[in-house]
């Protein structure tokens, strides 16, 4: 007995220790942790106006097969209230649900300016409760029109240089002193402008947004931004300051020929400011400082500032201390009350433009005496920071370009009407540092003239900026060129997701071309969290839609009179919302956009009512005839526009059917599906012969007059036609197979190089996978011959080019074409990159929202020995990494908590698959079936390593 007790006593500590370890193992390390919480896709957003904002969270766990079975959300007016559970705005209670995204706030009605602090906890599959998440928050904006007490104010300025043929007025500086008495609880600044603004309080800049409040159709809606300025205020005297730029409202925007005669002032003549500072004191008192006629204004050192043309700064005109309370503004003028806009004031729903990188020069050359060219090693959008020493009135001129001429001089011909020139006039007081405002350029090179001293690497720094969208992907492989191609796509996306998805960042264009956006949309969604950015742009798309149904070729459309639409471009109004829905299961986007989409489909259905599809020469009313077609393709003859128009229409019908069903509109869903089936049947009957070949009546196009490059003639038999039919899954199996053979044959005849233009390029590689020829897709994507993406990399591309032949060693920048239309930073052809994720790494979603994931890598022609793809989905990180060593295939996957995945492991029928180095644990991993050369397994969350012989 005694002995036993003693031994028990001695054993007890180790027993407890073991117990602790196993507890830790099961309960703590394998529990679920809530990692991130977001509201309307944003991190702690300020000033939102959705009355029932949507909350989402991402979880992680070291365990496997972890699921959420219930959640609880608490929302309170302050952090303390949340802790003490007093003043709760919402307590959802424990709700049995596996939903972890897009959960609508369902508490007390939220008021203007309301602060909302929230936290979440969840229960796992065994009803084990998690810890509370970190506290997140959001604040509400000004929800009612009456909340706005501010008035639109402005100050008209003259041009600094009357000899300049461009009209470039000086930027107005506006100020308002005021005083604060009492302990401040919170102070919020609500601010917007017609044009762009930069605000400061007591000399300190507010926020780091650039070009705010961004671009919208200001006649229909104007967005305001909200900033928390509680820490900026002083007791006693304070001063608010604002600088205005012409921006998209009054400055130069878009291609010169579209905006004749003045090329500027597309929405209004002069910029204006509207702002309201709301101060809440600890004692409950409130005070509001607004923009009104009491503000003072002056010209200042920013002598011009224009999006396309550049910015000029004369440091000798600095108004030292202008935005502080002690400044003497006696000589300042009064502001005037600006006419403002009829547009609705709404909270900014997107991702503001912000800086994200700084680039050091990789070389400095001097092609001519006194002309220095800085190479930043990367093409991007942003501006340069200048650091310079010199004498008073020395003038430094910065010009920007994407490429160099063979003699080392800056190539600027492709900028067309965009002057892209910044000027700085020194005050001559030691080291001076300057960054331009209210402009941006697309460039890799900066030419600097006017320097007195030899520059060094610190003279110029590249500041890269764009919409602050969370970037969530990574891709690497055993092919360095392919890796660079992916980097090029990322840089191109970041350069062009500038408030709206633009085509280019450098020339006088920078418009939200719908064709480019739809083709690149899935690639973009793999790379970044676009829920907020896209929702903002869809409002632009609706605002630019024509009353009779079509979506405009670009959105926003700053030319109210312009009627311009094109098949393949306008379907972006359906396809981009559809893709966004698929990635995030965001039904709000579908609902908000639904009436507009219905109107668009009605137009298409009406237009095609005679034949149910588009026979040859159906689009003579648009400009150019037929629309833009397979723009910038490399085929001898044009792909008949009507084939593409029909298939894009059909794909839109199919997408509409699915979106209608998802929001409970069953009748509509059936209607679109029936219309789709009828259309496809008639289309096949007309355009495809029994061998699955596209045949057209060429005579229907006459001499091609009115069509873009119509003299080349027309055909139905191109890579893009077959790739589109296969990718949109329009053909029945037998025809699909036959069409596939034509595609393969056409590729063979073209040395396995692409000939597609921007309407077909996205489809090409996945279509080859779909017909079991990913080997060919690999060959194409890994090519370095002309025309290919690898060719671009070989010739120094660090972003995606607009054209296959933007540059060739034989023809340089291709003569006249360069000055007409040539961009080295254009994402449309970057649409190949969705293939890297959807096919190479094989990350897909079975349903909407990556809840049921598919990992199905295509190994292609086995020319890659490894591929790593990673995508940060709305449910968390999904990883697919594979390698082939001799005949061993290894696939590492990571599946987020609360999701399941079907993993396709390449393995022939009789071969075995291992997991984690041993036999498959069938409790955790279910074998689904053998499908062709794959074994399919179903897994829950966690990390797995599959190995097979191939
Ligand atoms: C743009 C394109 C656009 C095209 C339409 C070009 O100027 O840069 O990307 O889709 O026009 O034809």
TrEMBL record:
InterPro entries: 6-hairpin_glycosidase_sf (IPR008928), 6hp_glycosidase-like_sf (IPR012341), Alpha_rhamnosid (IPR016007), Bac_rhamnosid6H (IPR035396), Bac_rhamnosid_C (IPR035398), Bac_rhamnosid_N (IPR013737), Ig-like_fold (IPR013783), Rhamnosid_concanavalin (IPR008902). Residues 368-463 form the Alpha-L-rhamnosidase concanavalin-like domain. Residues 183-353 form the Bacterial alpha-L-rhamnosidase N-terminal domain. GO terms for molecular function: alpha-L-rhamnosidase activity. It holds the Pfam family Bac_rhamnosid6H. Residues 842-914 form the Alpha-L-rhamnosidase C-terminal domain. One of its GO terms (biological process) is carbohydrate metabolic process. It catalyses: Hydrolysis of terminal non-reducing alpha-L-rhamnose residues in alpha-L-rhamnosides. It comes from the Bacteria. Its EC number is 3.2.1.40. Residues 471-838 form the Alpha-L-rhamnosidase six-hairpin glycosidase domain. Keywords: Hydrolase. PANTHER family: ALPHA-RHAMNOSIDASE (EUROFUNG) (PTHR33307), ALPHA-RHAMNOSIDASE (EUROFUNG)-RELATED (PTHR33307:SF6). This is alpha-L-rhamnosidase. It comes from Ulvibacterium marinum.
């Amino acid at each position: 007995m005694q002995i036993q007790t003693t031994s028990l006593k001695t054993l007890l500590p180790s027993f407890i220790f073991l117990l602790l370890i196993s507890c830790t193992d099961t309960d703590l390390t394998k529990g679920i942790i809530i990692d991130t919480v977001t509201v309307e896709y944003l991190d702690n957003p300020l000033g939102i106006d959705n009355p029932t904002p949507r909350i989402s969270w991402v979880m992680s766990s070291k365990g496997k097969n972890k699921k959420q079975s219930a959640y609880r959300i608490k929302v309170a007016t302050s952090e303390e209230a949340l802790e003490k559970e007093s003043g709760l705005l919402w307590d959802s209670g424990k709700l049995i649900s596996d939903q972890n995204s897009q959960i609508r706030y369902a508490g007390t009605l939220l008021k203007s300016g309301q602060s909302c602090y929230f936290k979440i906890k969840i229960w796992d599959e065994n009803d084990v409760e998690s810890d509370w998440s970190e506290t997140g928050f959001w604040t509400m904006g000004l929800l009612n029109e009456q909340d706005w007490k501010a008035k639109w104010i402005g100050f008209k300025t003259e041009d600094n240089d009357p000899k300049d043929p461009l009209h470039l007025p000086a930027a107005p500086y506006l100020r308002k002193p005021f005083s604060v008495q009492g302990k401040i609880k919170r102070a919020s600044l609500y601010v917007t402008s017609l044009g762009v603004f930069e605000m400061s309080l007591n000399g300190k800049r507010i926020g780091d947004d650039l070009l705010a409040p961004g671009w919208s159709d200001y006649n229909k809606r104007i967005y305001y931004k909200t900033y928390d300025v509680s820490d900026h205020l002083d007791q006693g005297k304070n001063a608010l300051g604002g600088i205005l730029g012409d921006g998209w409202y009054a400055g130069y925007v878009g291609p010169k020929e579209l905006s004749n005669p003045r090329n500027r002032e597309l929405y209004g003549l002069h910029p204006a400011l509207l702002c309201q500072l709301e101060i809440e004191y600890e004692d409950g008192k409130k005070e509001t400082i607004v923009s009104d006629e009491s503000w003072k204004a002056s010209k200042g050192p920013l002598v011009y500032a224009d999006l396309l043309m550049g910015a000029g700064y004369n440091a000798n005109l600095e108004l030292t201390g202008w935005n502080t309370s002690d400044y003497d503004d006696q000589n300042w003028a009064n502001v005037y009350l600006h006419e403002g806009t009829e547009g609705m004031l709404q909270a900014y729903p997107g991702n503001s433009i912000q800086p994200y990188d700084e680039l050091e020069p990789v070389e400095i050359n001097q092609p001519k005496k006194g002309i220095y060219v800085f190479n930043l090693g990367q093409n991007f959008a942003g501006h340069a920071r200048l650091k310079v020493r010199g004498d008073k009135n020395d003038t430094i001129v910065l010009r920007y370009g994407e490429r160099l001429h063979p003699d080392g001089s800056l190539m600027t011909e492709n900028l067309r009407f965009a002057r892209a020139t910044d000027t700085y006039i020194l005050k001559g007081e030691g080291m001076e540092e300057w960054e331009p405002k209210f402009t941006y350029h697309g460039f890799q090179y900066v030419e600097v003239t006017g320097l007195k001293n030899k520059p060094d690497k610190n003279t110029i720094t590249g500041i890269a900026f764009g919409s602050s969208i969370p970037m969530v992907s990574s891709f690497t492989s055993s092919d360095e060129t392919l890796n660079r191609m992916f980097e090029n796509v990322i840089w191109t996306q970041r350069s062009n997701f500038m408030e709206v998805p633009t085509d280019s960042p450098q020339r006088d264009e920078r418009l939200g071309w719908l064709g480019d956006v739809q083709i690149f949309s899935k690639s973009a969604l793999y790379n970044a969290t676009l829920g907020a950015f896209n929702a903002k742009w869809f409002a632009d798309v609706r605002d630019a839609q024509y009353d009779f149904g079509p979506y405009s070729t670009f959105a926003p459309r700053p030319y109210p009179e312009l009627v311009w639409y094109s098949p393949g471009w306008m379907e972006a109004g359906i396809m981009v919302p559809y893709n966004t829905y698929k990635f995030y299961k965001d039904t709000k986007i579908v609902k908000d956009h639904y009436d507009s989409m219905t109107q668009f489909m009605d137009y298409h259905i009406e237009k095609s009512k005679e034949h149910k599809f588009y026979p040859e020469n159906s689009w003579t009313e648009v400009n150019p005839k037929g629309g833009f077609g397979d723009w910038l393709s490399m085929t001898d003859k044009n792909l008949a526009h009507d084939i593409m128009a029909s298939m894009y229409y059909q794909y839109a019908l199919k997408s509409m059917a699915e979106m209608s069903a998802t929001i409970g509109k069953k009748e509509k869903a059936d209607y679109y599906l029936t219309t789709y089936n009828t259309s496809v049947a008639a289309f096949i009957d007309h355009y495809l012969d029994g061998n699955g070949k596209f045949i057209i009546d060429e005579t229907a196009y006459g001499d091609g007059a009115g069509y873009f490059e119509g003299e080349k003639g027309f055909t139905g038999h191109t890579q893009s036609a077959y790739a589109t039919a296969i990718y949109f899954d329009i053909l029945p199996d037998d025809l699909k197979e036959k069409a596939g053979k034509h595609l393969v044959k056409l590729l063979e005849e073209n040395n396995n190089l692409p000939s597609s233009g921007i309407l077909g390029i996205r489809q090409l590689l996945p279509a080859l996978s779909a017909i079991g020829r990913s080997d060919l897709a690999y060959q194409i994507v890994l090519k370095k011959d002309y025309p290919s993406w690898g060719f671009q990399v070989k010739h120094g591309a660090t972003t995606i080019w607009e054209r296959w032949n933007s540059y060739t060693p034989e023809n340089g920048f291709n003569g006249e074409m360069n000055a007409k239309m040539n961009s080295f930073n254009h994402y449309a052809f970057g649409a190949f990159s969705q293939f890297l994720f959807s096919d190479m790494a094989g990350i897909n979603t079975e349903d909407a929202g990556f809840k049921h994931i598919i990992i199905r890598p295509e190994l292609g022609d086995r020319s890659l020995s490894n591929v790593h793809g990673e995508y940060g989905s709305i449910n968390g990180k999904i990883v697919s990494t594979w390698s082939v060593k001799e005949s061993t295939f290894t696939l590492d996957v990571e599946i987020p908590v609360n999701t399941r995945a079907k993993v396709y492991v390449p393995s022939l029928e009789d071969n075995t698959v291992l997991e984690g180095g041993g036999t498959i644990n069938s409790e955790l991993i279910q074998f689904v079936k053998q499908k062709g050369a794959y074994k399919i397994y179903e897994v829950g969350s966690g990390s797995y390593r599959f190995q097979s012989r191939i």
